[in-house]
Design goal:
single chain; about 200 residues; alpha+beta; five-stranded antiparallel sheet; four-stranded antiparallel sheet; DUF674
Length: about 200
């Protein structure tokens, strides 16, 4: 793979329905790639969501303050260094599934784990320097061998959905589109324009 190919950031095509003045997106027609990304939000730990959105406009109530205050606390306040890491970079229990996503916002998805340094113990942790129940410390790094997973992630590859501006996911058929437009007060399809866009990681965040 050439350097240029490595630098190309993946995108997902979307068909948007917008009003004539292009001041509002009414709905989007999305394939399984985008639907899977959207559904993956439900699998993310809250700490990951707050961290990912930390440098972007908007906030999640006071959760940003909670996250930042944890980051500023000295490690001496926690039982172990691992306890602080668990709060600031929690692991998604479905990270191996999310690794198949075309756009994955969870950068904590890796296969590292740490074995207990007690040779008679078989416990392990996703976080280094975790206290083990046997009294040892999980600090022997290893890489987990993951089993092959279905590349379709959450929905079937052939799935097409209509996604409304308030994130309702509806079956991708004409009835859904008509229902969305009627609910928004659009009785004339001539008022609606179709716009094709490519969505990357920044737009997803």
């Amino acid at each position: 793979m050439s350097t240029e190919e490595k630098n190309i950031k993946p995108t997902i095509p979307l068909k948007l329905l917008v009003d004539e003045k292009k001041t509002r997106v009414l709905a989007a027609e999305a394939t399984s790639d985008f639907v899977n990304v959207l559904l993956s939000f439900l699998s993310l730990p809250l700490g990951t969501v707050v961290r990912v959105l930390e440098n972007h406009p908007g906030s999640i109530g006071c959760m940003n303050n909670l996250y930042q205050s944890i980051g500023q606390l000295s490690a001496d306040n926690f039982c172990t260094e691992a306890c602080k890491s668990i709060l600031l970079s929690p692991r998604n229990p479905h990270s191996l599934v999310c690794k198949n996503l075309k756009l994955n916002i969870d950068d904590t998805s890796n296969r590292k784990s740490f074995d207990c340094n007690n040779r008679n113990c078989r416990m392990w942790s996703h976080y280094p320097d975790t206290k083990c129940i046997c009294g040892g410390i999980a600090n022997l790094e290893k890489f987990q061998v993951s089993q092959p997973l279905d590349p379709e992630c959450f929905v079937k590859r052939t799935t097409v959905c209509v996604i409304t501006d308030d994130l309702q996911v509806l079956p991708g058929n004409p009835i859904s589109l008509v229902q969305v437009l009627c609910n928004l007060g659009f009785s004339d399809v001539d008022q609606v324009e179709e716009l094709s866009v490519d969505v990357g990681l920044d737009e997803v965040i």
